[in-house]
Design a protein that fits this description.
This protein is α/β, with parallel strands linked by helices. 40% of the residues lie in helices and 14% in strands. It has a 7-stranded parallel β-sheet. Strands 1-8-4-5-3-2 form a 6-stranded mixed β-sheet, with helices on both faces. β11 and β12 form a beta hairpin.
């Protein structure tokens, strides 16, 4: 029997197979039978031929109450579900029994049916029609809320316009929901960080439309200026998407800033921004608005109303990471600075005040909406129980937490938060591996081994660290976990990890990687694992010539890295050959063809990295050059190599140029800043002083 993702909790093989069949149909007497039939249709999205009428096998849908009647008190099943997990089994679990002539699913909920059908799909064997192994299984999740934070509009209009998921229309999003459902995820936190990707008739200037950007035109090899509009504004589909997801048991949260990047209002009305102190050394103001201006509050309230109108089940507010409060207007100083000893205290006082206002607005618009917050992420990392109780008392008692300790602390710190807030309020931890990886300009570095001496880096956000925290959340019976998927293409392993461990998987990280590849990709697993472990990424900012600090990749290329670079150069042709084979095989695989684009992005990253290796070696020659002529020659070579890499980038990606709407140039692609650094050395008399920062999310870390 094939491996499954995530693993089924309890399974017993009875021996033999069902008869061959060509279609599936569903029958039974449960109250949600008609909805169940629609769910079966949706679940067959990549097995459309099984929706026909030729020689089918029936799925008998029954209630959990019938199990004891059929199987008795002393059966294997009666002992399969631990008492402490019986609640999750009742709400999201199922019993599956496959015999030669029939499939029986016992469940009381649509969610249980969705997950049972996901298991049936993974058990299917193709030959003369289809067949299934005869088994009995009892299955349920270990975590109630299994969420992914994904990009619907991430730093849109501030650091990017449109990329990856942000470029999808309804059909692409539906396909992603189908994949989430197949791997038993049940919540998406849709990042709306930046210009709003929906209509705001009261504040049209806040919408993600009409923003000018330059696109590469390969037909005539030139840049064409266009005006960008988010796909959901071009043809509104978000409410329809949420309705589709609800049928699959998937909830939707709006993941937004509490007072940061909340639409395009602050760019259209710079006078509404926080008033920074004179001679401030901070690069930007995080798009934060002055909370002493009543117009700000009215705008934020209306934004909440418009978000609720989209159909979201909840809101995930993020308190910006800057551990300071810098609005220097007279009223803010009198209101929020009063009684606070530190900027951190002032920040939390202001944000708590705003949270309570928006809380009331949201509850008035929809009383049953769930409100969550990502807060208290700044030092001290270890907090006393008294301080945690103060934090708890500062927010409404039904606000849930989308952040709890994980990185850089012992597991006991997380346990303190669980005891203080209660298990039901813990929905996520500091599991942001792909949030950080997505800041690397689309170079692939989800694992420590993919980067330049990552074990020496101060930041430890990698998939294995997410896994450690997920396992801790399961151990403490937290209500939810969250995984970041701020880029989808190329980062499927993070998706698998969130799915696997939230369902109670116990494999060590290294074993899990192999297992998941085998379960999903079968015969391609060895080649994929080889590429995954041999890809070597040097971020462009890691060249010593690159002057701007980039906190997500601090190590600089050194002489000791030359052997590792040479090894990567030697293995490059093998990686390309294997990737071409993987891509071609997946494109012909009607079950898994949706994954082909992931490996195309891997290939683009590998191709770029091959050019960066040459730049890295040339940068070391530059540092050792003894004459000005030698240095100039090295600089010219690096300039041409940078251009060569950018050719690969602009041919494969949509959003590659700086965004300047805030007055601070920002771009996730390092090409522009590296070009500035090289040209300033080549032509010091024409020096360009203004840098192009590497993404808005890194600006908060750059305190000069």
């Amino acid at each position: 029997m094939r491996q499954m993702m995530p693993e089924v909790k309890k399974i017993r093989e009875k021996g033999g197979y069902s008869r061959n069949f060509y279609s599936l149909f569903l029958f039974g007497e449960v109250p949600f039978l008609e909805e169940a039939k629609e769910i079966l249709h949706l679940k067959l999205w990549n097995y459309e031929e099984l929706g026909g009428s030729k020689d089918g096998i029936g799925i008998h849908l029954r209630s959990l109450g019938e199990i004891q009647e059929l199987l008795g008190e002393q059966t294997w099943l009666a002992k399969a579900v631990p008492e402490e997990e019986a609640g999750l089994f009742q709400k999201q679990g199922y019993l599956l029994d496959i015999s030669e002539e029939e499939i029986q699913i016992f469940t009381d909920t649509k969610e249980g049916l969705v997950y049972a059908l996901a298991t049936v799909k993974q058990l299917l064997e193709e030959g003369e029609g289809f067949c299934l192994p005869c088994i009995t299984a009892a299955d349920w999740p270990s975590i109630k809320y299994r969420s992914l934070s994904v990009t619907f509009a991430w730093y849109a209009g501030y650091g990017r316009f449109g990329f990856d998921m942000q470029l999808w229309g309804l059909e692409e999003w539906k396909q992603f929901l189908n994949i989430c459902s197949d791997y038993k995820m049940n919540q998406l936190n849709m990042c709306l960080y930046g210009y709003w990707p929906f209509h705001m008739k009261e504040y049209p200037e806040a919408e993600l439309r009409g923003l000018k950007m330059k696109l590469w035109n390969p037909e005539s090899e030139n840049w064409v200026e266009v005006e960008y509009m988010h796909p959901n504004l071009a043809e509104e589909f978000l409410p329809q998407l949420i309705e589709y997801g609800h049928k699959l048991g998937i909830q939707f949260f709006a993941y937004i800033g509490l007072n940061s990047y909340s639409g395009g209002y602050s760019n259209a009305h710079p006078d509404q921004r926080m008033k920074m102190p004179k001679d401030s050394h901070f690069i930007n103001d995080f798009d934060s608005l002055c909370l002493s201006d009543e117009k700000t509050i009215q705008y934020l309230k209306q934004s909440m109303r418009n978000i609720v109108a989209q159909g979201f089940d909840g809101i995930d507010f993020e308190e910006s990471e800057e551990a300071f409060w810098y609005c220097n207007c007279k009223t803010c100083r009198q209101t929020f600075w009063k009684g606070c000893k530190t900027p951190e205290e002032t920040l939390h006082a202001a944000n708590t005040w705003l949270l309570k206002i928006l809380y009331e607005e949201l509850k008035a618009a929809r009383p049953d909406i769930t409100i969550g917050i990502r807060a208290w992420r700044q030092p001290p990392l270890v907090r006393s129980e008294e301080l945690i109780e103060e934090m708890k008392a500062s927010i409404p008692e039904d606000v849930v937490l989308f952040w709890a300790p994980g990185q850089y602390v012992e597991e006991s710190e997380f346990e303190k938060w669980v005891r203080a807030f209660g298990r039901d309020r813990i929905r996520a931890r500091d599991t942001e591996a792909i949030g950080f990886a997505a800041g690397l300009g689309r170079l692939i570095r989800p694992f420590k081994w993919n980067g330049l001496r990552c074990e020496e880096e101060p930041i430890t956000q990698y998939i294995d660290e997410d896994i450690r925290q997920h396992r801790g959340s399961v151990k403490m019976h937290a209500a939810g976990i969250n995984g970041y998927l701020f880029e989808w293409y190329g980062f499927f392993m993070a998706f698998f990890a969130h799915a696997y461990y939230s369902w109670g998987g116990e494999k060590a990280a290294e074993d899990f990687y192999r297992y998941s590849l085998q379960a999903v990709f079968g015969g391609l697993a060895d080649d994929i694992y080889f590429v995954m472990t041999q890809m070597f990424t040097i971020h462009e900012s890691q060249l010593n010539i690159f002057e701007l600090e980039f906190p997500f990749a601090k190590n600089k290329v050194e002489e000791r890295d030359i052997p590792r670079i040479q090894e990567a150069i030697e293995v490059y042709p093998v990686l390309i050959q294997k990737l071409d084979g993987i891509i071609e095989t997946l494109r012909l695989d009607k079950r898994n063809s949706a994954f082909a684009l992931h490996f195309k992005k891997w290939k683009v990253s590998v191709m770029r990295s091959r050019v960066i290796y040459d730049m890295a070696l040339e940068s070391l020659k530059y540092e050792k050059a003894e004459t000005e002529e030698e240095r100039q020659n090295c600089l010219r070579k690096m300039y041409l190599q940078n251009e060569r890499e950018f050719e690969i980038i602009r041919e494969n990606y949509f959003d590659v140029n700086p965004v300047t709407e805030t007055g601070t140039a920002s771009c996730m692609i390092p090409y522009h800043e590296l070009k500035r650094c090289i040209l300033n050395r080549l032509y010091p008399d024409r020096r360009q002083e203004k840098p192009v920062y590497l993404g808005v999310e890194s600006l908060g870390w750059m305190w000069f």
